[in-house]
Amino acid sequence: MGFIAKEIEEESKINNISIKKIENTDKSRIIESINKKFGSNAQFPDPTGFDFSKKAHSTKFWKQASNLHYSGNPVLGIYDHESYFWSFKSGKELERLLSETTGFPFWVTDEGLSFLIYFDDHDCVHEAKNL
């Protein structure tokens, strides 16, 4: 496990944030579904492979995680030598975790894949266009 994934796991325990790590079979299914719905063919959602409908600079996007409209539980994805995904009970829980971790690029979606947002390491928020 990479250092970012370890940090997420540790911070969730320290701060009593209920998360569920999405394991390999479900992880592969999520990646396939994201690629199909948002138009990429990568092993992990690669931001260079998507068309983005919106792009904005926002240093505090992580503070808005609880305001996103989720169709099912929020899902956080990162790439840290391999892909990792976690499911959260609420956007508030996701927001709380992001406030306790160091800045890193991440993806946010939900169990219904109703949207896909990428937050890069330059504080840009990219919303993938749904095909």
Report a brief summary of the structure.
This protein has 131 residues and is an alpha+beta fold. It is built from three helices and seven strands.
- The strand order across the widest sheet is 1-4-3-5-6-7-2
- How far apart the termini lie comes to 33 Å
Kindly provide the radius of gyration, computed on alpha-carbon positions and rounded to a whole number of angstroms. Answer: 13 Å
Question: How many H/I helical runs?
Answer: 3
Mean pLDDT: 89
- What share of residues are in beta strands? 25-35%
Q: Rough shape?
A: globular
**H/E element order:** HEHEEEHEEE
| Total count of strands | 7
Biggest pleated-sheet summary: 7 strands, antiparallel
Question: What is the share of helical residues?
Answer: 25-40%
Low-confidence stretches: none
Structural class: alpha+beta
How would you characterize the overall build of this protein?
With 131 residues, the protein is an alpha+beta fold. It contains three helices and seven strands. It has helices at residues 3-14, 24-38, 91-100, and strands at residues 19-22, 52-57, 74-79, 83-88, 106-110, 117-119, 124-128. The longest helix has 15 residues, at 24-38. 28% of the residues are buried.
